[in-house]
Each structure stands twice: as C-alpha cells, then as structure tokens.
Amino acid sequence: MPTFTAPDGTRLAYRVHGSGDPLVCVPGGPADSAYLGNLGGLSAHRRLIVLDLRGTGRSAVPEDASSYRCDRLVEDVEALRAHLDLDRMDLLAHSAGANLAARYVARYPGRVRRLALITPGTRAVGVEITGESRRELARLRKDEPWFPEAFAALEAITEGAGGGDRDAIGPFFHGRWDAAARRHQAAARPDNTEAVTLFAAEGAFDPPATRAALATWRNPALLLAGEFDLNSPPRAVAEFAALLPGATLVVQRGAGHYPWLDDADRFVATTAAFLT
Questions:
Q1: What is residue 93's DSSP assignment?
Q2: Radius of gyration over alpha carbons of the chain, in Å?
Q3: Which residues contact 257 (CB under 8 A, 6 or more apart)?
Q4: What would the pLDDT profile of 62-119 be if each residue is shown by its tens digit?
Q5: What per-residue string of b and e applies to 174-210 under the rule 16 or more CB within 10 Å gives b?
Q6: Contact between 22 and 47 (Cβ < 8 Å)
Q7: Predicted model pTM
Q8: Residue of 37, 69, 41, 40 lying closest to 53 (CA atoms)
Q9: Can you list the domains of the chain with their CATH numbers?
C-alpha cells in the first residue's frame, strides 16, 4: 500500500482502485477506509485514491492525539494532493468525511475541481439533525421484520439517557438488511475510539466561516442522499446542498447510508456522470 508523510511527520497510507483520472476519496468514521471498497464499481470509471485517515487502517497513529481533530486533518488531505502532484483534484467524501471535505474546500477552494459528498455529515456547516427527524424517517421502515427492536434502540439513543444498543439500529443504515449488509456494517465500524471522539473536539468546526466560504465556491458539487438514511437524512442533505451555488442534490431511492451497497449500478451511474 503506498504511503506519504503528513506535515507533522505522521506516515499516512492510501489504497488505489482502478485506473484513469484520479479521484481522491475520504472515508467517514474516522474508520478504516476498506469499508468503501471500490465504491460499487466506480473504479471502472476513475482511479480511486482512498485515504486511510491517521490512526485508521494502515496509517500511523500520530504522536499528538489532538491532530485527530477535523480541522487539523485538512492538512493531511492537502499533503495527499501534493504527493499525487495534482494541481486540482476531484474530491469524494462519505459520511463524516464530508465535514473534512467541506473544511478543505473552505481552506483550499482553488484545489478542488469537483466535489462529491455521499450521504454527508453536516456538522461542519451547522445543519442540525433532530431526534424527531430521525424517528420520522425510521417509521418509513415500520413494515420491516426487524423494525420493532431497531426502533426501540433508536428511541433509547435519541432520548439521550445513555441507553440503547447502537448495533441494533444497523438496519436503518441500509436499504435492505441482508447478510451482505450485516457484514458491511461490521466492517464499517470504527475501531479507534480516540480518533472518533477527537474528530469533533472543541474547535473542530466553524460553521459560519465554512458556510461563508462555500457560498463563494461555484464549482460543481454533487450531494447524494439515501432515501432511508438516518445518519444523513435527505432533508438535512438538501440544506447542505443549498449552501453550495453549484450543487446538485440527488436522493437515491431505496438506499441507506451506503448507497453503493444498496444499488451499485444506480450509484455508479449517478456519480460517474457527475464526475465526467
């Protein structure tokens, strides 16, 4: 696996899938980027350069744990761009990685040509997702056999009493809860709790500044939401898209938080067309 060095000396790794024009990909979590795979076959259209964020996958654990903070990770993405010798890059980010991508565009607007945010997290831009909005979306799945147990766990979590089995709400993150989805859910689970906790530490986000910067960035952007995604509900993704003058919003029907898993053909067709 190829590596490069971050500005603070931390050795970072990335995966390469496919060939052709590079597409830099930032995972969510922070989690081992292996869960992205080849994004449902998007590697047939672009050479995917998939970053392992520091402390995850095969990237080294940094000496300074505070460098896990989202705004500080921006320089890791910039170091990868420089390592790849790209003047401008197309950038794709999933889930929490969209917060990092938003902060990167705000800091380095001239370095990004196209931006694809897949079921994006919204904390970097201050879009709030309420417990009630998640419950409302969850009720769309009320006829599924797993619903009663999963909804009870969701209620316990959203009530904020410290209860609730987070593994039990896994079905809400997939368009269909089958064996493949169960395996993928386990693979996507972050295993560096310190990196996850400190990613959103105080100072990680500055929504007013990020929103102001994105309002002046007019390059093409794709924001893709999953119809059933509790993590990044379509309504919240639409609010995010409204902040970008060049944005296109797509809601993938029948999809959850991992749309390339729920319907690879539809996901690849939408994303590849945008990136062409």
A1: E
A2: 18
A3: 95, 119, 173, 174, 226, 229, 230, 231, 232
A4: 999 999 999 999 999 999 999 999 999 999 999 999 999 999 999 999 999 999 999 9
A5: bbebeeebeebbeebebebeebbebbbeeebbbeeeb
A6: yes
A7: 0.96
A8: 69
A9: 3-126+193-275 (3.40.50.1820)
